[in-house]
Design brief:
A: alpha/beta; Rossmann fold; two-stranded antiparallel sheet; globular; B: alpha/beta; Annexin V, domain 1; TIM Barrel; two-stranded antiparallel ribbon; 22 helices; 14 strands; 11% strand
């Protein structure tokens, strides 16, 4: 193999990919191996992290927000990993806890869920809500739902039970090697469908990659609020709404990243 | 027709061939998720014993998904049931599945005889025999089979290992993609294809990225081929707009319903194949043009599995690939997730099964040796699969900067992993690409020249 050619421009300046790694023989040098191992370790720990329920509850109550705790039908993380179907269903005792909401319309249910990285929810959900709630004053909030062992579609039985007009799920995305704490936001209009269940991923809108090195809270809040308002105006969410959002925010390619949380 | 076997006083009944195949499959999470897996270890071995006694001829008359309802079943049976095909198959039809395993491992199964079977072998026969094989069998039989394909480079020759350079970027940024391409080319990667997974599946993105690769290829006279892995209909539109498309990509599955969920069918692939062929962009006459990706679990994920185990459906996807004489076929083995292949052990076995079944059907098999961060797997598991696939004679693997795909969020093999395998097993790149690496064009590479190409 030939020597690297001296380059005035560093490849690392052009991409977050792991280019220009140092080697010994054909193999990677020790610091490169250890860096990779650390990133993988952080991603693995994020997958097995749990929602910080006490501190999330405290933060929500400080903001005068009511809360309900629910659990999916997946009893633990290994089952959750193997059985995505259980992560999309409510545990029976959780279902009993959810009563149809009253109050002015349109009503919005916000769900904070662990998904595949509770780390993301623990780190970003409260600060994102602080940026977002002032923009959503046209909606009346049902209690905030904290959901453990949850997949994105757990929002549908939650919506069916609480009967809001819109659900917004903030959920930890599958960790990448350099993004263990990436939060996703999923918006679903009219989660009470008749006949149920007939909601698919094409009926949702997703804002992805909300984290310190990715989409910042203010930008994410703007995009989420836009989608919530448009969903209400048009009476729909999903593919049709995505086109409108892409026109309104053409410079935000994050929304096009495929959903990896469902 | 039910199948049955008695072991240790317990009589096990398998109502259908699909059930027998599922119960005989070495354990994996996807079959458990589907409710198809054996209920105990003994149950599984009983199924394997019953399967071992089943004559291969039986597969011709007992389609696991009805001929009338599935165009892949029709493709498979129509391929195997012609007089010429039956003449080729005749020597093995009287064998049981167990005897077929013994034949494949024997010296009677020469490369020529296996090549003669490949165009007509039913994928269910390949899947069945692989269920009775240990890893060393999967490796030893595959190592006898060479499948050689050509576009600008020649892939799959003995003593060669090629790579798909995979320079993905989270926003399709041309500079970022060019940086990863350069890094890969400097490390001897990219002789199978330079293939980008685009973030945006639209004609403009695809066309822009194809031009990016094509300008670099022409300026530095790089013997390789381009691909942007968008939906096949997006690529057809790009062709119509004059995009310089070399290899035509599509994900495929082993049931008609899976392919419907992908928005494709056999006639659409054929139509696109004709379009890409008419561009006449290859240097070799009669080039191979298609690049297919497959993976165990895709049918279940689309709720399109007809209660057939995921490995058998995967083998059926290879019958789809075989019909189009592809340049590259890639099993993205660990990508689909731990609900289908739970851990390193399951990914290892599936990777070697897919490689062998594809090779038995005469396909130019590569494997995306990979895992996601929610799977119970790590780099050690990838090293094991990488090394065993090298021994099995895999045609190509992925080359991703530092093994970290920053767009698709999973770990594959790095440029360095390919160099490790080439060094360890004394493997070389495709001959055209190897000559280029040694030419005076390779030292001219730089990021400025790539971006200004």
């Amino acid at each position: 193999m030939k020597q690297l050619i001296p380059k005035p421009l560093s490849l690392r300046d052009l991409t977050p990919a792991r280019v220009s790694l140092t080697r010994t023989g054909v193999s990677l040098r020790t610091p490169e191996i250890l860096d990779f191992s650390l990133c993988h370790a952080q991603a693995r720990d994020a997958v097995y992290a749990t929602l910080a329920i006490p501190s999330l509850l405290e933060a929500l109550h400080q903001r005068q927000l009511e809360t309900i705790l629910v659990h999916s039908a997946a009893p633990d993380r290994p089952t959750y990993i193997r059985r995505p179907d259980l992560g999309r269903a409510l545990a029976p005792e959780s279902l009993e806890r959810l009563q149809p909401a009253a109050g002015p319309i349109p009503r919005l249910t916000i769900i904070l869920a662990d998904g595949l990285s509770a780390l993301a929810t623990n780190r970003h959900a409260i600060e994102l809500l602080d940026a977002l709630l002032p923009k959503l004053q046209q909606f009346s909030l049902t209690p905030i739902v904290l959901a453990e062992q949850a997949r994105v579609a757990l929002g549908d039985p939650i919506g069916a039970a609480l009967q809001p007009h819109l659900t917004l799920m903030l959920i930890g995305e599958r960790p990448g090697l350099t993004s263990p704490d990436s939060l996703g936001a999923y918006i679903t209009w009219n989660p009470i469908r008749n006949p149920r269940p007939n909601i698919t991923d094409a009926d949702r809108n997703c804002i992805s990659n909300i984290r310190t090195e990715g989409l910042d809270y203010a930008t994410a809040a703007n995009r989420i609020a836009f989608l919530c308002r448009e969903a209400q105006t048009r009476g729909l969410s999903g593919t049709a709404l995505k086109e409108a959002a892409d026109t309104a925010f053409p410079s935000n390619p994050e929304s096009a990243v495929p959903a990896i949380t469902s | 027709m039910p199948f049955a076997h008695t072991v240790a006083g317990t009589h096990y009944v398998f109502p259908t061939l699909a059930d027998l195949l599922a119960k005989a499959t070495p354990a994996r999470s996807g079959d458990q998720l589907a409710g198809l897996a054996a209920e105990s270890a003994q149950h599984r071995v009983a199924a394997q014993m019953a399967l071992a006694d089943l004559p291969l001829r039986h597969f011709l008359s007992d389609p696991i998904i009805p001929y009338e309802t599935d165009e892949i079943s029709r493709l498979i049976l129509d391929t195997a049931n012609t007089p010429k095909a039956l003449t080729r198959l005749e020597p093995i039809l009287s064998l049981t599945v167990g005897e077929f395993r013994d034949f494949l491992l024997s010296d009677n199964a020469t490369p020529d005889r296996l090549a003669d079977l490949a165009p007509v072998l039913m994928p269910e026969m390949a899947a069945a025999v692989s269920k009775l094989m240990r890893l060393q069998d999967l490796i030893l039989v595959a190592a006898k089979i060479r499948v050689v394909t050509r576009f600008r480079t020649t892939i799959g020759l003995p003593g060669r290992l090629s790579t798909r350079l995979q320079p993905n970027h989270p926003t399709d940024d041309p500079q970022g993609i060019a940086a990863s391409i350069l890094d890969g080319l400097l490390l001897g990667s990219g002789d199978a294809v330079i293939g980008i997974n685009p973030v945006s599946d639209n004609v403009n993105s695809v066309t822009t990225l194809l031009h990016l690769i094509d300008r670099a290829r022409q300026r530095f006279e790089i013997p390789t081929q381009s691909c942007v892995l968008a939906h096949i209909t997006t690529q057809m539109q790009a062709i119509e707009q004059g995009a310089p498309l070399d290899l035509l990509f599509q994900s495929i599955g082993g049931t008609e319903l899976t392919n419907t969920s992908f928005g494709i069918n056999l006639s659409l692939i054929e139509e696109a194949h004709q379009m890409a062929h008419s561009l006449n962009r290859a240097t070799h006459p009669n080039p191979n043009i298609l690049y297919f990706e497959t993976g165990q679990g895709s049918a279940l994920s689309a709720n399109a599995h007809h209660n057939v185990d995921q490995q058998t459906i995967e083998a059926r996807a290879y019958a789809v690939a075989r019909a189009f004489n592809p340049m590259l076929v890639n099993s993205v083995v660990g990508f689909i997730g731990p609900e289908y292949l739970y851990d390193g052990k399951q990914i290892l076995r599936a990777g070697l099964e897919d490689h062998l079944c594809g090779k038995l059907l005469g396909l130019p098999m590569g494997v995306d040796i990979c895992y996601t961060n929610h799977a119970e797997a790590d780099q050690d598991d990838m090293d094991t699969l990488l090394t065993t696939l090298g021994l099995a004679g895999v045609n190509f693997i992925m080359g991703v900067p530092g093994a970290d795909d920053i767009m698709l969020h999973y770990q594959s093999t790095s440029f360095h992993d390919a160099l490790y395998l080439r060094k360890l097993l004394n493997l070389r790149p495709a001959p055209e690409f190897e000559a280029w690496l040694q030419s005076n064009r390779h030292p001219e590479l730089s990021i400025q020249s790539l971006l200004n190409a």
